[in-house]
Each structure stands twice: as structure tokens, then as C-alpha cells.
């Protein structure tokens, strides 16, 4: 008997191999592939495969007809094979963090756009300008955040091999107003309780339930039973277990972040600003994305991002010092000159991998600059002037439009700018004095 894994394994080389597959999706009966070069497909061999009912070519996708039930199982195995083939060098931890990041990264443009509009709306309200427009801006800026759980659920199912719309349907339970009538652990639930963490957990559970059903429900009943059981089992578990649990975790994250900044501000800022570059180098910074999203959803901004952004300031300062010291290394100076504008806007990878990390010591002195900038911002947080970001994604000077703070945008911008300047100065000074061998 040919299994779905056998079919997926046979399909992959016949469509040109992993490098030729740009996208994977499925409908009720067809596996839909985006291909870099359709001419690499062996159509005759595909049609001859057991389980393949036909092939349809159009302008956008290459469609392989597999039938109801079978198509979902083959798609899941096909995606797993792709991940295995394209991610051999990735450790399990990095792989898991990358997949979680893939859930949230597509949401960043909407977070940025809505965050900027929310900041603009706040300025208009505080100034008393355009009172007839601010309610409309509030709706436009807030609508996405009110439904972010649905988007998280959709992307989670898509990333982990489930049906995206089922992931969104299960996660929608988290934000449905009617959950206020449900009691879990002796406490009435609140719409949105658990937030993005609850949505992530709900969609992961939904994906597991769906896959379990796909392997056991007869093909003729799969179209009806699998979606129904997925939504029923995952939805009830979300209501009676996941929302309460995720809500407790989310509250703990917010409480811990506030406590750290209010009691150990400079120390917490120095640790976060100083260690962020190594986290980026190792790919572990992806784990912070759900935390940022949770804080934004819960408190309106993430106070961690402005501290972490100081790592980029230390990196810019270190690169500037290398540029000044190594006057005769024209190749390295050209690299710095081209990468520095991106670094000022918060894109640090070119400077990390092109300058500081290959040289060794400048990477450490850049971390020192980040720690100094983080301590500066953290000190003000401990004094009651916390600085937050209403969206994730940008850092450096690009973060200014997204800043918010206890003392208003002007105070937040001044503190953040002071942190950047501190990071630049310490990163430059430490690198100039200690970051390069004397003979250079």
C-alpha cells in the first residue's frame, strides 16, 4: 500500500527537487506548488505515480490532483520533506525558533503601519486637533490588534503543516466576545485572554488534531469530519484550558518586564543591550518575537525593544572606530561605508558579519556599547520614565515614529536618542582603545 509519505517522497524529485519549490498549498483535492522553473517538472512520470489522479498547469501554480483527504496528508509530508532538505544545518532549537518567527514575521508590516497610526492619533488627541478624524484613526489603528489572534492562528497552522483557515478559526475563539459567558477554573473568561500566546497554542493543537484525523478518517468522510473534529476538540480545549493558562503566562511576562525595569533598570538594560548581538548571531533572538507581541497586545507597547535596539548603537559605534583606525584597509572601509547607513536604521547584520565578528574584538566592544546604551534607557525606566515601542521590526533611528512612553512621545524620544548616543560613544571609544591590535 502506498502511503502519503511514499507519495510525497516520489513527488519531490519529479517537480525539480527542493530548490525548485517556492511555495506549497492545497485545496480540497489538489496539491498546489509554486515552482521556480516549471520546465524541470517530469509531467509524464508524475501522472504515472500511484495516487496521482491528474496534473493541471496554469500561470501561477503547478497542481497535482490527489483527491480529498489524501491531498492534506501528502501536503503535510511534502512540506516536512522540504523543511528537512533545506534545513539540515539547523539545530532543533534554531529550527523551532525559526518556525515560531515565521508565524510572527509576516505580521510585522501591519504592526508597523498600525503602530505609526496609533502614535499619530495619540498626538492628535493630545493636541486637540481634528477631533472628527481621531475616532476613525482609532478604528483603523486598533482593528488589526483586536484580531491579531486570528492572524497568528492562520500563520501557525500554515507553518506547522495544518490547514491555515482552520488554525484561524480555532484561534478566533480567543477574541470572540461570547467567551465572556464561559467559566474556566472557576473564573469567567475575558475576550482576548491569553492573546497571541493562546492563539499560538490553540492553532498548534488544532494542527495536531487535524493531522491525527487525516490519518484515521476515511477519505470519503475526511472533508466533513476532519474540520469539524478539529474545530470542536481544539476550540473546547482552548476555552477550558489554553486561554486561562496562556493568560496567566502573558500576565507573568508583563509583570516580570515591569518589575525588572522598575527595580533593576540599569542592570536589566545593560544585560539586554549587551547580550542581544550574540543572540542575533546565534539566531536565538527569534524567541523574543512572541514576547514583544504579547507586551504590545497587553500593554500597548514593548519596553524591551528600545533596550535591545541599543545593541545596534554599540555596533555602529564600533564600526565607526574600525573605519577611523584602519585607514589603509580600503576593502574593509568600503564595507563599513556601505553598511553603516543600514546600521543606523537598525539593520545590523551587514556590520556584524562583515566587520565586527570577523575581526573578533570589535564584536565584544560593540556589545559593551550596547550594554551602556541599554543601561542609560534602563535607568530612566527605573526613575519612572519607561520607553516602549508600539510595534516590532525597526530599530535604530527607524524606531522613533513608533516610540511611546510614560512621559509622552517627546520625553520617550529624548531618552531613546540619549541611549543611542551613549551606545555610539561607548562602542566607538571601547573599540578605538581596546578593539583592535596595536599593530593595526
Report on this model:
By secondary structure, this protein is of the alpha+beta class. The protein has 3 domains: 4-89, Gyrase A, domain 2; 102-256, no CATH class; 268-434, no CATH class. It contains 17 helices and 8 strands. Strands 1-2-4-3 form a 4-stranded antiparallel β-sheet. The protein has a two-stranded antiparallel ribbon with strand order 5-6. A hairpin with a 2-residue loop joins β5 and β6 (187-188). The protein starts with a helix and ends in a 6-residue tail after the last helix.
Outline the fold blueprint.
Layout: H1 4-14, E1 21-26, E2 30-35, H2 43-48, E3 54-57, E4 62-65, H3 70-86, H4 92-104, H5 108-127, H6 134-146, H7 148-159, H8 164-175, E5 183-184, E6 187-188, H9 195-214, H10 219-282, H11 289-299, H12 304-308, H13 310-325, H14 330-344, H15 349-359, H16 361-382, E7 387-389, E8 403-405, H17 409-434
Antiparallel strand pairs: 1-2, 2-4, 3-4, 5-6, 7-8
Rg calc:
25 Å
Judged by helices, strands and strand pairing, the structural class is alpha+beta
Coarse shape: globular
Overall pLDDT: 88
User: What is the terminal separation in angstroms?
Assistant: 68 Å
Strand-and-helix sequence, N→C?
Answer: HEEHEEHHHHHHEEHHHHHHHHEEH
DSSP E strands, number:
8
Segments where pLDDT lies below 50 for 5+ residues? none
Instruction: Classify the beta-strand content into a percent band.
Output: 5-15%
Number of domains: 3
How many H/I helices? Answer: 17
The biggest beta sheet is recorded as:
4 strands, antiparallel
For the largest beta sheet, what order do the strands appear in spatially? Answer: 1-2-4-3
* Residues in helices, as a percent range: 55-70%
Amino acid at each position: 500500500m502506498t502511503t502519503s509519505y511514499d507519495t510525497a517522497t516520489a513527488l519531490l524529485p519529479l517537480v525539480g527537487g527542493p530548490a525548485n519549490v517556492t511555495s506549497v498549498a492545497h485545496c480540497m483535492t489538489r496539491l498546489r506548488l509554486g515552482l521556480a522553473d516549471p520546465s524541470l517538472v517530469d509531467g509524464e512520470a508524475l501522472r504515472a505515480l500511484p495516487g496521482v489522479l491528474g496534473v493541471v498547469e496554469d500561470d501561477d501554480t503547478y497542481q497535482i490532483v490527489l483527491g480529498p483527504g489524501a491531498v492534506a496528508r501528502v501536503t503535510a509530508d511534502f512540506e516536512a520533506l522540504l523543511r528537512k532538505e533545506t534545513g539540515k544545518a539547523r539545530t532543533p532549537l534554531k529550527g523551532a525558533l525559526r518556525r515560531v518567527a515565521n508565524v510572527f514575521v509576516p505580521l510585522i508590516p501591519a504592526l508597523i503601519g498600525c503602530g505609526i497610526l496609533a502614535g499619530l492619533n495619540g498626538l492628535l488627541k493630545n493636541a486637540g486637533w481634528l477631533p472628527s478624524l481621531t475616532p476613525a484613526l482609532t478604528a483603523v489603528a486598533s482593528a488589526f490588534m483586536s484580531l491579531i489572534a486570528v492572524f497568528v492562528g492562520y500563520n501557525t497552522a500554515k507553518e506547522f503543516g495544518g490547514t491555515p483557515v482552520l488554525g484561524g478559526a480555532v484561534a478566533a475563539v480567543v477574541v470572540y466576545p461570547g467567551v465572556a459567558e464561559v467559566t474556566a477554573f472557576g473564573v469567567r473568561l475575558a475576550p482576548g485572554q491569553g492573546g497571541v500566546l493562546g492563539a499560538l497554542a490553540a492553532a498548534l493543537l488544532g494542527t495536531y488534531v487535524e493531522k491525527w484525523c487525516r490519518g484515521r478518517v476515511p477519505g470519503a468522510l475526511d472533508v466533513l469530519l476532519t474540520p469539524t473534529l478539529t474545530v470542536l476538540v481544539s476550540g473546547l480545549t482552548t476555552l477550558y484550558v489554553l486561554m486561562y493558562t496562556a493568560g496567566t503566562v502573558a500576565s507573568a511576562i508583563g509583570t516580570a518586564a515591569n518589575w525588572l525595569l522598575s527595580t533593576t533598570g540599569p542592570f536589566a538594560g545593560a544585560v539586554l543591550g549587551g547580550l542581544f548581538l550574540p543572540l542575533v548571531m546565534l539566531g536565538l533572538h527569534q524567541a523574543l518575537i512572541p514576547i514583544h507581541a504579547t507586551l504590545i497586545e497587553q500593554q500597548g507597547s514593548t519596553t524591551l525593544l528600545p533596550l535591545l535596539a541599543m545593541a545596534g548603537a554599540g555596533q555602529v559605534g564600533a564600526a565607526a572606530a574600525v573605519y577611523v583606525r584602519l585607514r589603509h584597509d580600503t576593502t574593509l572601509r568600503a564595507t563599513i561605508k556601505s553598511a553603516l547607513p543600514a546600521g543606523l536604521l537598525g539593520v545590523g547584520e551587514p556590520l556584524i558579519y562583515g566587520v565586527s565578528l570577523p575581526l573578533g574584538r570589535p564584536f565584544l566592544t560593540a556589545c559593551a556599547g550596547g550594554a551602556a546604551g541599554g543601561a542609560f534607557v534602563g535607568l530612566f525606566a527605573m526613575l519612572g520614565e519607561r520607553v516602549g515601542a508600539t510595534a516590532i521590526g525597526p530599530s535604530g533611528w527607524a524606531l522613533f515614529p513608533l516610540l511611546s512612553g510614560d512621559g509622552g512621545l517627546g520625553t520617550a524620544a529624548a531618552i531613546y536618542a540619549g541611549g543611542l548616543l551613549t551606545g555610539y560613544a561607548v562602542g566607538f571609544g571601547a573599540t578605538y582603545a581596546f578593539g583592535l591590535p596595536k599593530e593595526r
